[in-house]
Description:
With 224 residues, this protein is an alpha/beta fold. It has a single domain (10-101, 119-219), classed as CoaB-like (Rossmann fold). The chain has 5 helices and 12 strands. Strands 5-4-1-6-9-10-11-12 form an 8-stranded mixed β-sheet, sandwiched between helices. A two-stranded antiparallel sheet has the order 2-3. It is globular and about 60 Å long. The two termini are 35 Å apart. The relative contact order is 0.16. The mean pLDDT is 96. Ligand PMT binds at residues 32-36, 74, 93-97, 99, 125, 127-129, 143-146, 158, 162, 170, 172, 178-180, 184.
Amino acid sequence: LPRRDWSGHRVLVSAxxxxxxxxxxxxxxxxxxxxxxxxxxxxxxxxxxxxxxxxGPTALPHPAGVEVVSVETAEEMSKALTMRLxxxxxxxxxxxxxxxxxxxxxxxxxxKRDLTNPVLDLEPTGDILADLSARRTGQLLVGFAAETGDLxxxxxxxxxxxxxxxxxxxDVTTPxxxxxxxxxxxxxxxxxxxxxxxxxxSKRRLADDILDAALRLARTAVRR
Length: 224
Ligand code: PMT
């Protein structure tokens, strides 16, 4: 029988990439498949939580019993999450949000013949996680850190800069892990600096391990 240890919790999960339009047919994005976030949504639902999944474009079926909100851009994802923050008790930010977007979105398809020396003008998107952290009213916040080196140092920086309770640090260069894979490996670092290393395993299994750690934190100590 599944544990129902998340009943009573309302969990907001973000998943997938964002797409930042260049023109009506082109966009900037990344390699996120959504699998990590969907696994988290499914695991939390199976353990008794009410779950809302805010997802960028993916090829995955909607998880049963989960309310799905589909978005495209970082700005839409930010709005969808911010709107639901006060409803939630826990937020898990596994989406791979674009850090930059084209400054201008062309109304018509850019024509190759008109572009002799094409340059994309970019501007930063807002940091959704840092924003949610600034607005929170007691919610537990879980962030991710996707790194390609110096995992712990970068992850600790993100934990502090974004003001989260738990960060899931994954080295996305690990063979068989990270973007697109059914498996992942991660190091969890919590707000007190406690570290736990979770070697390669299915994203569903990792999702349950993340939920275990988050539930322990939710049950202890007053949040900042
Ligand atoms: O989707 P899959 O194919 O299953 O792959 C899973 C994954 C590799 C995408 C996932 O495990 C993962 O690492 N997700 C976070 C990806 C990411 O954007 O990491 P980051 O280190 O760039 O960002 C740190 C944190 O800030 C993340 O929680 C991110 O959601 C958040 N963020 C980032 C930028 C931004 N503008 N706003 C944010 O909230």
